[in-house]
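Module 6 notes. Inverse folding takes a fixed backbone as the condition and produces residue identities as the prediction. Think of it as a translation problem where the source language is geometry and the target language is the twenty amino acids. Below is one complete input and output pair. Work through it position by position during the lab.
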């Protein structure tokens, strides 16, 4: 018997290849293993159907009792009971066959126009600062996208362009949202768009197969990632967009891939910055050592200041001479103008007296400023004079070779030393030394 049934099964499967069958769902049950069991019937007949778990879990909608569906199935025999049944691979609501034909016709026409050409695809920004999201504010897919972006690229700015994603008029709203995002790109600073919607039947996703949406996607100046449906769903928007993601969450991961990867590089960048700072600090230490070796002796510094002071004195003298010469010339010019002026000598005399007074005041102020500067330089020079230090009671001690003694350990008992005071010098002999 089993061999006979196997021959029948082989004959049926070869004689009735995989095809579409329409009917009403009846006696629906779901086993604990995840397999679906139901009957497909019409007014005159019915046939048992089985859909295995690996296929059933991919259904984009909830199969219900009494639903009119079309199943893509293989006619076979269940040998254990000798039942004739359909082994179902895919289910779609009845009437989607016409939608699929319309989908294929529109796809062929738009593809012939070159709207899906790969050379039209624009590159996505690697490190975007702001992206736009075209979706329904109430969609669960939007929340998935926001959660993914918050987890992977929390600093990314988001702009939502709300639209309907299903039903009558949804296609026109989607196209309008794409156009609005492009019109506001300078104001919103978006660098790319995410077109998002969760999974559903072909009818549910039909808005994304409308020609107006396809043309809006191709007219967009901003690159668009299409994340519509689940892994098995495909729309014309997927072909027209610059990149296609299997799910809305995958679209969020695709646009944030560069930022996510960069965040993983932050520890390496931190180590590189720390190493760079340490190298810079070492260079500064070397420069400090070099400057310390180049430090000028106070005697040389005093000589340089003395020369600078003399130079300033000469410049002050020359400046005063030039100012007096200029004042005399101005006075002579004024006197000449006064001689050529009208008979109103009183007014000119008053003007001349005023100018003379201002000239004297200016010269006095300039001399005061120069004198003050000269006094400051003399004070600075005096502060650097070693004799001033000696006047305060300090002394300079030299050994027998004339070297300045800075440490008591340089001397031992019996050494002769020379002590320079503010006035005069004293010779002495070391009787004791302590460090």
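Target side of the pair, the amino acids:
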């Amino acid at each position: 018997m089993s061999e006979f049934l196997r021959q029948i099964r082989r004959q049926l499967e070869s004689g009735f290849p995989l095809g579409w069958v329409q009917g009403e769902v009846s006696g629906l049950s779901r086993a604990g293993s995840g397999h679906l069991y139901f009957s497909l019937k019409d007014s005159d007949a019915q046939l048992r159907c089985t859909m295995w778990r690996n296929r059933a879990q991919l259904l984009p909608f909830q199969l219900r009792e009494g639903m009119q569906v079309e199943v893509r199935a293989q006619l076979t025999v269940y040998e254990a009971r000798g039942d004739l049944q359909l082994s179902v691979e895919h289910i779609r609501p009845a009437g989607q066959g016409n939608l699929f034909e319309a989908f294929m016709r529109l796809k062929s026409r738009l593809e012939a126009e070159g709207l899906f050409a790969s050379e039209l695809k624009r590159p996505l920004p690697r490190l975007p600062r702001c992206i736009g999201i075209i979706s329904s504010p109430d969609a669960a897919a939007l929340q998935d996208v926001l959660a993914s972006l918050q987890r992977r690229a929390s600093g990314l700015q988001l702009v939502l362009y709300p639209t309907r994603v299903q039903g009558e008029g949804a296609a026109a709203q989607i196209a309008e949202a794409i156009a609005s995002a492009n019109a506001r790109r300078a104001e919103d600073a978006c660098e790319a768009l995410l077109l998002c919607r969760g999974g559903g039947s072909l009818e549910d996703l039909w808005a994304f197969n409308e020609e107006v949406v396809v043309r809006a996607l191709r007219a967009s100046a901003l690159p668009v990632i299409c994340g519509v449906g689940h892994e098995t769903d495909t729309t014309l928007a997927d072909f027209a967009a610059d990149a296609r993601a299997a799910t809305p969450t995958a679209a969020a991961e695709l646009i944030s891939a560069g930022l996510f990867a960069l965040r993983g590089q932050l520890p390496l960048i931190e180590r590189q910055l720390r190493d760079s700072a340490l190298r810079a600090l070492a260079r500064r230490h070397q420069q400090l050592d070099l400057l310390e070796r180049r430090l000028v002796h106070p005697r040389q510094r005093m000589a340089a200041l003395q020369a600078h002071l003399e130079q300033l004195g000469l410049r002050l003298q020359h400046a005063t001479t030039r100012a007096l010469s200029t004042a005399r010339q101005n006075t002579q010019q004024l006197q000449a103008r006064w001689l050529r002026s009208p008979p109103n000598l009183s007014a000119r005399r008053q003007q001349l007296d005023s100018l003379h007074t201002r000239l004297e005041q200016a010269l006095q102020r300039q001399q005061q400023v120069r004198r003050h500067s000269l006094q400051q330089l003399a004070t600075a020079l005096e502060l650097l004079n070693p004799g001033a230090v000696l006047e305060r009671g300090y002394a300079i001690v030299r050994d027998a070779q004339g070297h300045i003694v800075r440490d008591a350990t340089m001397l031992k008992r019996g050494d002769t030393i020379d002590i320079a005071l503010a006035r005069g010098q004293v010779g002495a002999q070391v009787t004791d030394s302590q460090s």
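Reference fact for the lab report: Residues 298-340 form the longest helix (43 residues).
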